[in-house]
Here is the input.
Amino acid sequence: QVQLVQSGTEVKKPGASVNLSCKASGYTFTSNYMHWVRQAPGQGLEWMGMIYPRDDSTSYSQKFQGRVTMTRDTSTTTVYMELSSLRSEDTAVYYCVRDNWVFDYWGQGTLVTVSS
Amino acid sequence: ETVLTQSPATLSLSPGERATLSCRASQSVSSYLAWFQQKPGQAPRLLIYDASNRATGIPARFSGSGSGTDFTLTISSVEPEDFAVYYCHQRSNGPYTFGQGTKLEIK
Here is the structure.
């Protein structure tokens, strides 16, 4: 069965970077785009960008352009999302989401807290 | 970007009643509209894709309709487990966007 298992909770100071991971299993890793979506406390869902593991191509929301980098490791079927220059507004739960022409599987989410 | 506006923000109903949730897009998204359900502390769950197709394992009481800019999610008879927040989502126009959510609460 398809599983997306994300890395654990992070606490960062303003200005730092965070690197989150999402390990995929149960399907052909290189066949599907993977997206990152975040949710600030008590707020809605926000799309950040996507990566195609087959060729490492990416597309980012303009809001995060210059601060976000998505990569993948095909040997471990893992995608990574690095967000830099963190500020308090980046405090959120970050989800990886498989794209099968629909957002059909979601990771369990990783809480990132940015606080001095 | 395509803005999705959901209404109402909160819907108060009793179990057994019919729920009608609306999602309006600022420009056409064709039929590339999905609905998700989210319960506290959980990741969103896909309910409906391409405006009217139920995802695997979703009960028949959930249905979706619409195309272009106006979409509706209907729960024919609300069950206790349906009280949650519902989001619409479009993948027609970049960047992908979500509505702000409708909270379905117990009356």
In short: The CA atoms of residues 9 and 102 of chain B lie 5 Å apart. The longest strand of chain B covers residues 19-25.
